[in-house]
Each structure stands twice: as structure tokens, then as C-alpha cells.
């Protein structure tokens, strides 16, 4: 008996064409007016450090954490943190983002039968909340759990259990829909949540546990749930 | 009854001062003779894609994978792959690397009592093998397991089980020593391996399972094992 449906955000509900890193880097550089060579070197090192922190400690590096690391490396004080944080958010919001086909219909349909949750890894959760509003789907969610707000990322079980508690649902009565074999499918399966993999046609990594169900578009959920 | 001791490589056995990314980027750019702006943009995007592949699929991105992604993005054919792979390895080997204090004594002592293994996440395993020779510690290891050679990274249980099979040791008769709470401690604990955390004084992340033992230097292993 299913009681709650949880979704991933990036790629699963919202599609992106570009990579955002260069845009953000150039906007930061323009704002701080640091020489290109010095700035780029420090920015790249900071991005590497942020990845290593995420990897070694499974801890989210928020946009503010990233900005503070960068300013420290550039030997600039903390004064521009708020401005850069705004620029960081704007850089993401200016990307070419689209709601995935069928997302709204599926959410609207599922909401009449189940509790609906969102679990997203993000360095700037505020932006996810703004995008949910922009695409007019925020009202469908009973619970929104963002890694930079609670500090822990998928695939760690904690973030799934936290979301389940907020939906008052045990893992065996929940399904999770996502596009990442590792973060979403493995993360959900580790907690005993039924894992639905939204495939884009790639071969499924043979070393990871298989999802319970594979779909190739959100509309398939209308028949299945 | 302990039968095997397994070690992480980077930071645990070998210390690094610099970050290697800028060096590698500049050497690639010099070799390919692409305009700085175009090259840097493509390189940064490739680094982002590589991180996302590692994250989404828990699959290692090898040095050759990275180089091929980069050349595709630059719209250059595969001809320079071998040269760039050599430059990639040289860039790592030219870093300021040192064997951690006590490493040799500890390995020499443990070898008289236990089987010794190495499990390392690395995009270019050949370099780890060369460094083990440079530091004259290769001969202490009965088994060396590198993520780019088997395709799967820590903290996935597969890589730990693979190493244990090669040492003919069940998990409950093994210890793993590493400096990453997520990759090493969580990875080992998930498999039922006794996890020793080599701390550099940071606070232990409260959301991860605690190690079985915390040490602040390799020499502590002489008293404990």
C-alpha cells in the first residue's frame, strides 16, 4: 500500500541544457574585479576543494560555504558574501531551465492519491524554492527537503529518513523517482524505499543495485501508480 | 582475530601540499596550443561533467576518460590521447608528495603479522603504482586495488569486498585505515570491516557512523595492532 511519492528535482522534474559553472565564474570575476589569471586560478582551486569536501565528508557545500572559501583564497574579506550569494542564485535562475514534459499532470494526478515529497541535492536551496514557484508546482508538495538546508546529501539514508518522517510514512509505503543510479536509486533502495529510475537510455551501471522499476518519461507514472 | 590490514593511499600514506588541477590544466593547454579563453572554458566544463559522472553513477572517471571528454568538447580528434595521458601522469608525479611519517615502519611491522592491502580512489592508478615504487613501499602490499582499474569507487562495498577476496579474508577479520569519514570509514563499516580513522583534528561529521578507532598518526598503529 503506497502512501507517499517522493521526487528528485534536477533532471527529474526540471531539465537543464547548459552547465552553469562558467557563467557563475565570469559573473563573480566581473563583480570582484580581480585579474583574470589570479581569479581563475583561485576559483578553480576552490571548486576542487568544494568537490573534495562533498566527497570526503558527504556534507553539502552551500553557496555561502563556496563563496567564503573563494574569498579566503583570494585574500578578500567577507564583505561581498551577500552580493556574491545573490549573483550565484541569479546565475542559476538565468539558465535555460524547463519543466520536464508531463511533470505537472503527474504531480496533479498523484496528489489526489498520495502525499508528495521532494528531495534534492543543491548548494542553494533558495533557488529550488524559487523555481518551484516559477513553474507553479510548489503547491503540490507536502514536504521539500534540500541538502544545503539540512547539511546532508543523497545517497545518505539520513536525508531519505528525514523526508519520510515529515510525510509520516514508513519506507515500505514510499516510492522515490529520480534519474541518478547512485544518488537516487541506490539511496532509496538502501532505505527500503521502492526506487523508480527515470532513464534517458544509458546502460544501467552493472555494479549498482537495480531499480524496482525503470521508466522513460514521467507520464508512465500515470499508468503505474 | 585480525588477518588483514588495508590502507587508503592519498593523505593516509602519502601527503600532498598543492592541488594538482591548475598544473594539469596549464600543461594540457600548452601542449594543445588552444586559445586560453576557449581552452579554459572547455576544461572547466569537462571537469564539471567528470564530477557529475562520478557522483551520479559512482563510476570512476579515468584519466583517459577525462582526456577523451575534453578533446570531444574542444572538437579535436583522439590523436593526442596518449600524449595527454602521459602529461596527466607527469603532472601528478611532479607534485610535492611525501610519505607520511611512520608509514614505512608501520607497514614493515604489520607485514610480519598480517596480510596487507591497499584500496585507493584514483583516476590514474599507474601513478599510484609508480609512487609506491618511488617511496619503496610497494613490496609490503599483498594486494593493490585501484578504482580506475576496476571501475568502482569507495565508498561502494564492491571495492572493499573485491580487495578482501584477493586477501582471502572475511570482513570481520580485516581492518581498514583511512582519512576520509565518508569514503573510508563509512565504506569499511558498511562491509563489517573494523574502521580506523586517521584524524587531522577536524570535528567528526555527526551524521556519519563513528569509526571503531580514531588515531592521530600512523605510529599509533604499532601499539594497537
Automatic annotation (TrEMBL), chains A, B:
The identity of this protein, by name, is HAD family hydrolase
Asked if the record carries the keyword Metal-binding, the reply is yes
Gene3D superfamilies assigned to the protein according to its UniProt record, in alphabetical order: 1.10.150.400, HAD superfamily/HAD-like (3.40.50.1000)
* Species the sequence originates in: candidate division WOR-3 bacterium
Cofactor(s) needed, names only, are: Mg(2+)
Gene Ontology terms for molecular function = metal ion binding; phosphatase activity
Q: Name one GO biological process term.
A: small molecule metabolic process
**What PANTHER family does the database record attribute to this sequence?**
GLYCERALDEHYDE 3-PHOSPHATE PHOSPHATASE (PTHR46470:SF2), N-ACYLNEURAMINATE-9-PHOSPHATASE (PTHR46470)
Record's Pfam families?
Hydrolase (PF00702)
Q: Report the domain of life of the source organism.
A: Bacteria
Q: Mind listing the UniProt keywords for this protein, alphabetically? A: Hydrolase, Magnesium, Metal-binding
> Where does the signal peptide begin and end?
none
